[in-house]
Amino acid sequence: MNNSFNSGNVPKENTAIYKDLRLSIQSWVAPSVLVITSPTVTKLFQKMSTTTGNSFTDILNQYVNDKRESYYELNELKLNFITLQHLEPASFTQSITDTSTSVDAMATDEYCSNFKIRTKQDVPYFHKVCQDPTPWFEKYRHHYLKSCHSPELETFSHPIAVMLIVSSEDSNPIGLLVKMFDSAKPPAIFQQYNADANIPKIYILVHPENSEVESERRLSEMKNTFGATNSYLLRISPKEDDGGLTYEPSTANNSNPLYTIVSDLTMKHIPNFIEKSILELNDTIVANKKSFFSKMKLRIGYKKNEDEATSAVSVESCQRRLSDLYFLLQDYENALSNYKTLLKEFSAEKTPNHYAATYEMIGICNFMLNKETESQFETAINNYTRSGLNAASVRAAMIQGEILKRKSSYKLLADLYKSIAEREIDPFCAAVLLEQAGFCLLQYPAPSFRKACMRLVLAGDKYAEASKRKHALRCYGFSYGVYEGRDWNYIDDHLHLALVRYSFFQGHTSDSILFVNKLLEKNCQSFQSQNSIIREFLFISKSTAKDNYIGELPLPLINNDRTQVFLSDYSTELNQLVWQEMEEAFKKEASIITKPVLQGFDLWRKDQFQEAEKERTIVVEEPITVECEIRNPLQVPLQFNRVHLVATFKNSQTQEEESNMSPLDDDALAAMDNGQTPFKVESIDLLLGPSETKKLVLSIIPLKQGQLIIKGLGLCMCGSVWGKRQFNLKQKRLNKTRQQRESVVYEPNLTLTFSVTSPMPRLETQFIEFPAALSHGEMKQAKLQLKNCSNKMGLKNVRVRLSHPTLCCFGSNNNDASILSTLDSSILLNIELPPGATVTVPLWVRGLVVGRYNLRCLVYYESEAGNSDLKYRLARCQTDFDVKASLRISTFSQQSSTNLNNYLLGIEVDNPIIGGGGDVFYLKQISSISQHWKITPLSYKEDVPNNSILTLHPGQFTNLFFGISPTAEQQQNVNQQQQQQQQLAITNISFDKNEPMYDSSSFPVFQFLEYEKMSHHDYFQGALSMGGAAPGGSGGHNSNHMTASNVGTANSNIQSSRESLSLKSPISSEFTLGEHQNLLDLMLFWESVPSSPSQKLVPTTSSTTAPTSTTLANTIATIPSTGGKPTPRMGVLNATSISFLPTHFNDTTLATPWGSWRNTTSPTGKSLMYVDPSLRFQAPLRHQLQSPLSIQHDFQKNSICTTPLKLQLSNCSPTHTLQLCIDTLLPHENLDVTSQLTSQYFWTGITRYNIELAPLQSQELPLSVCFLRAGTYNINRYKINIKINNSEFSKDIYSTVQHLIDVEDSE
């Protein structure tokens, strides 16, 4: 049906009437003219209006609305041209639908572009930038008022004139006009609504200009039949749109063919009819008004006949029609008076519909007269609701809403619109009212923020119900900004699902997918809901995706923190720093400067010189492996096909970019296999169950030089939609400059960015025959295999760096050994590998400290051809092994009481039960290494120790004692010693006369000792750098030559041979901590057979006649096979840097107390030192009395026995000078202040000496002692006051060793 209120017929300049409610009411309450056309006229205008689609009724409405002149003194009086269909009840529903369509053109995607409300504090700014968020509401209200009619309650829609239109081409125009409308038998709709059929009739003959019919003759017949004043001829032009009847303001009024017809209608026919109707209605009302007597008869009980009853009803209808006519004439005072009179005839209980309609008009009249109106509209709305006339209640609510808005009663207005919207009304109308209710709550001085957003969500639901997707998307999008991130699951799911659907319907595919991602992140929906969401997402994506590829997929979820990259030249274990430290050390050795050396004022700006992360370099045709963890957060299983890595590649020469962000179909796979792409990827298929997590390992192989950036995972979801999941690795926030600190700036994460360079050789490394377990001190041989996997290029400059450098020695003997100079340096292997070659490097491994080891080996190598982008490459391998406990060594030393230059060394060897390995150990040999000292056995003289002493079962221990005496070189002058090259004195003492003696200076025994000393040195240096003192002294040795002394025990005389041996030693002069000489290193050789304690290891080089020399490496290499039985094990325990001389008290690195001290090697292999804390002062002085042990004297002849003595003094320090004051004690002087005893002897002669001892100087002082009778005397009664280097501090020391003399009477 053609509606007379089509939005296309309302020009833009009339939009001002939408905002003025008075004009909207006047447009609604306008005289209605019924238009009835013959079928010929209808078809004729359909042909002429192909572009506009207007009927003759639409043309008349447009002409009247466009004209600006008034035909009589009324404000903006217009006419409403209607058809019979307009009076039907079904026409209202269509009118409402057309009204909602008329405002679609004004709908926007957002209320305010580039701004979203998130908190209550954003509301004032929103009102500032968006003063009218819903400009379409006034237009909708205007058309709703104009379209909403209730013919049974009001007469505004009752026609007051009828236009009968026929064509000159009709066969019988006169007869057709008579039949079209007969006042005696009007259409049924007139009788249904009790409309007046006696209305003016206008007869129009339409004559096309190209018609050959005589129009004047037929017009004359019409005038003779219907009257000249009611008959008109309308000439039209079929060649023009709408027949040339459209109103044009630029032309004269009388030039339009409709001018005469409309002018006569508005100036003659309608005013005359209204005036006549008012007079007739007034007479009818007066004539039928009930008298006082007739009302009393009804109360007494007289019956009223049917004619009277009909007359009473007609009186009420006449009263309503009269009131409506006064309102049409804009006589609001008379209209109000008549409406109030009519109201008395109705009651809210019996006729709530008429009661509500009358109250509504009373309120409208008061509004037009600027009087109070609220109570009338509230009553009208309530009674409309009781009557079920919800459409009429909406009309009343819209009028009352405008009144409340002018009073700024926004809270009441919001409640009014909400209550009306909850009734059974048109969904679009309910959505508009809910939308207005939401913004009214925001206009309140204390805005109800969350309630307003909920109103908008409900408005979005109603818009969706009315199929207004753009309006719904706008409401949902506005509310989403408020509810986002609040973890309100139900509203989140509702909004996300709605935004997914309507974003897709509006063509915003990327937004739709984004909301799907957020919808599924929470995983709080049921199984059925998630299954429905996935199906809907797949349908949406497949319907809109170009080439079946949609870009970012919502699933699966990627755990970016678990994403790792595996390369052959870079660290793969991101959570461990061991590989990275070793790589950085190789960078320094390769002279690759990554950080500037800062000096001066640059130190204050050091944060600006921090090294930025760089992309890593990889080689063409070598794979990059990415390990990632993906998860299905849903309760439904998901199938993913052809999961692969997606990347972008930039050619280094042409700067062209390529990517594989497209479906990986069969054609793409074929192109990849043929080398048509810059890189190659592998793909896998997988099924992720509900809430299942899987770890993927995928690889990508670059085929050209350039820049490769891995973006994420490409996959096909559920076999229907292709897309990708992007890696979002964590970025480091920049905080160097002030601008960066004031803003949020992140450094690009280049973990997945690679520079692809030209081909280079690739080295593969692995350990071979590496032991799975070792005992503490045990040594075994292993191998490191190096393989050049390149068939085109060789490699050179092979270097090795270990995570535990003290555990391994590379080489098989002294000739091919590769020795570490320092523990933080690498080992250079004299190896060059041609293409495809493989080499095996021998190495020795020794258990040092008990524990579990993960030995990492990093191999550095360079290409023979060279590469400017990649100077070197790194290969790595690793192995795990255990070090178990074996023996524990404790050493203790003390000054000898018989010789000033000798010391006592005690060794306790323990096979512990707790922490031990439970094996039986055999002691084979002990060796000492020192620069100035050697050891000799004291526990035995004539033969080797008993086997029971040398065999240690679990829980047993043994003690061995040795004497420490100086070598010949120590007796030389200090100046001569500084000029000579330093040598090491090595003493080897074998415990088995039938077995060869092991050379402790051989490889790798001596190298492991030096490595262990280096490790101790680094530990002591670390303790000092932390502000602590080292637990003991460590000596330095710069020895390129050594002197070996092999001590055999086959006979009573110790046989020693000394010779100068050349040995590769890593110890440099920088390793020296001090210049004192009280250092001694011990090596204890042992063997063990776990399964058979009685089994002895018999080397093939053994000799039964005389001890020979061999190396421990040769012995281990020649151990025979035991046929599946446990293999005998051999090892060496080291006790390094044993101190036995006092040193300068102020030298913290060498401070060792005077007296008894002890060094211990614990079962775990850690070196411990015990010192007596009560010994505070330490001086490098040794002193000793020399005298006969017994004296014969005749006291009868001479009562006093005088005996000469010598006091030997020696300065042990090679650097410090000692100032000494020696005093003998008087008889009454006591060493202990609490003692009351006096001595039985006294000193004579010189009793005080003041001397100075140069470094390493010795001196003898003569003393004399007198005895008065025979007996045994302890003559240690003297004190020495010591100063070092003439310092102010001095200390008195006393002899703590008894010196006994037996005096006998010779009588």
UniProtKB/TrEMBL annotation:
<dbReference type="InterPro" id="IPR024420">
    <property type="entry name" value="TRAPP_III_complex_Trs85"/>
</dbReference>
<feature type="domain" description="TPPC8 second Ig-like">
    <location>
        <begin position="777"/>
        <end position="874"/>
    </location>
</feature>
<dbReference type="Pfam" id="PF24545">
    <property type="entry name" value="Ig_TPPC8_1st"/>
</dbReference>
<dbReference type="Pfam" id="PF24546">
    <property type="entry name" value="Ig_TPPC8_3rd"/>
</dbReference>
<feature type="domain" description="TPPC8 third Ig-like">
    <location>
        <begin position="881"/>
        <end position="1020"/>
    </location>
</feature>
<feature type="domain" description="TPPC8 C-terminal Ig-like">
    <location>
        <begin position="1183"/>
        <end position="1282"/>
    </location>
</feature>
<dbReference type="Pfam" id="PF12739">
    <property type="entry name" value="TRAPPC-Trs85"/>
</dbReference>
<dbReference type="Pfam" id="PF24544">
    <property type="entry name" value="Ig_TPPC8_2nd"/>
</dbReference>
<feature type="domain" description="TPPC8 first Ig-like">
    <location>
        <begin position="576"/>
        <end position="774"/>
    </location>
</feature>
<protein>
    <recommendedName>
        <fullName>Trafficking protein particle complex subunit 8</fullName>
    </recommendedName>
</protein>
<dbReference type="InterPro" id="IPR058538">
    <property type="entry name" value="Ig_TPPC8_2nd"/>
</dbReference>
<dbReference type="InterPro" id="IPR058540">
    <property type="entry name" value="Ig_TPPC8_3rd"/>
</dbReference>
<dbReference type="InterPro" id="IPR058541">
    <property type="entry name" value="Ig_TPPC8_1st"/>
</dbReference>
<dbReference type="GO" id="GO:1990072">
    <property type="term" value="C:TRAPPIII protein complex"/>
</dbReference>
<dbReference type="InterPro" id="IPR011990">
    <property type="entry name" value="TPR-like_helical_dom_sf"/>
</dbReference>
<dbReference type="Pfam" id="PF24542">
    <property type="entry name" value="Ig_TPPC8_C"/>
</dbReference>
<dbReference type="InterPro" id="IPR057651">
    <property type="entry name" value="Ig_TPPC8_C"/>
</dbReference>
